[in-house]
Amino acid sequence: QEPELSRLFELADKIRKIAKSKDGLDFLQTILSHKRAVLYFAQPSTRTYLSFNNACQILGIQTSDMRSSGYSSEVKGESLEDTLETMHSYTDMIIMRHVEENIAEKAAWMFNESEKPIPVINAGSGPHEHPTQALLDAYTLHRAFKGKVKNKVIAVIGDIKRGRAVRSLIYMLSNFEGIKFVFLSPPELGLPDDLRQFLGKNSISFEESDNLDKLLRRADVFYYTRIQDEYDKQHESKSIDYSRFWLKKEHLSHMKSEAVILHPLPRRNEIPPEIDGDKRAWYWKQEVNGLWMRAAIIAHVFKEDGYILNYK
Ligand code: NCD
Fold it and tell me: Residue 136's CB: how many other CB atoms inside 10 A?
């Protein structure tokens, strides 16, 4: 496992611990009180937006929001590049969710050439990537398995084709030794070619399956996702039957006692709320982990790791 990943896990744990007391929170709030950030979310978001905003507040960063390109001058015909340039003029960091692939990287590249390079964090780019989700997912597995994430069988269930959380999770977990993926999806939403090639090239073992029952006893992790129908061209998902993969209460007795059920959320019907109380249901803890991991990412980006880790 990458040393940088271990460092982020350690930092997230430390920030979480420090934040438990008023003195600790007061300390955290001094760390980046000289910085401002803009949260530019041009696609819907609840968790990612709130956890980033609260992570900024915990570290003392002042934030402003643009929660839709509909409220920005893009509706007046301004280019996305010019909009980003304006955010760059006013702030020290951009956290952005946008449908366009690679736009966060492009913005970072653009600002690196300027007199004021500022960090840009990708908080979800269309159906392509969601790197901070993958970090909080890995952090959750690190906590659930007490640091022993290698050699696990990871079932990924749902919209494998268009799920950005899924794509980033695959890239992320390829950092851990001996991981095996099993993909379960309706055939229309199966593993896309580029991911198949990525897995092949990196010699990561994977299977595709159509049978949840067979997997129940075998998988260590059940990573559920919803159908990403906002990317439908003509409501084609309406005719797709996903229900045979949904988790049911009666499945729990067949699962390993140490299994971990994850979901980036929002959920629809793939996991019923009656499962929430089971000790293997980790998705609400996963959401909480998102706050601490995002605080760690921001602190790391501003090179404050050492200062925080030394706090007594
Ligand atoms: C995910 C996303 O936006 O990609 N949600 C999230 O960030 N927690 C998953 C989804 O929307 O299905």
Answer: 29
Output the CA angle 7-150-199, nearest 5 degrees: 100
Reference 100, options 62, 43, 155, 142; nearest CA is 43
The DSSP bridge partners found for residue 261 are 222, 281
What residue owns the CA closest to ligand 1's atom 2?
A: 165
Whole-model pTM: value is 0.97
pLDDT at 69: 80
Average pLDDT over residues 99-119: 95
Q: How confident is the model at residue 68 (pLDDT cuts 50, 70, 90)?
A: confident
- Lookup result for tokens 């090239």: 201
- Give residue 174's Cα distance to chain centre: 15
User: Is the C-beta atom of 126 inside 6 A of ligand 1?
Assistant: no
User: What is the position in ligand 1's atom list of the atom closest to the CA of 165?
Assistant: 4
Find the Cα–Cα–Cα–Cα dihedral 224, 229, 235, 236, rounded to 10°: -40
pLDDT for residue 128: 96
Q: Counting every residue, how long is the chain?
A: 312
The H or E element that residue 155 is part of is strand 153-157
Does pLDDT of 1 surpass 80? no
pLDDT tens digits, residue range 115-135?
999 999 999 999 999 999 999
Q: Is 119 in the pocket of ligand 1 (CB under 6 A)?
A: no
Cα(60) to centroid(ligand 1), Å: 26
133 CB within 6 A, ligand 1: yes
Index of the ligand 1 atom closest to the CA of residue 130: 4
Residues involved in catalysis: 47-48, 76, 97, 130
State the distance from the centre of ligand 1 to the C-alpha of 199, rounded, in angstroms: 23
Q: How far is the CA of 226 from the centre of ligand 1 (A)?
A: 9
> What's residue 2's pLDDT?
81
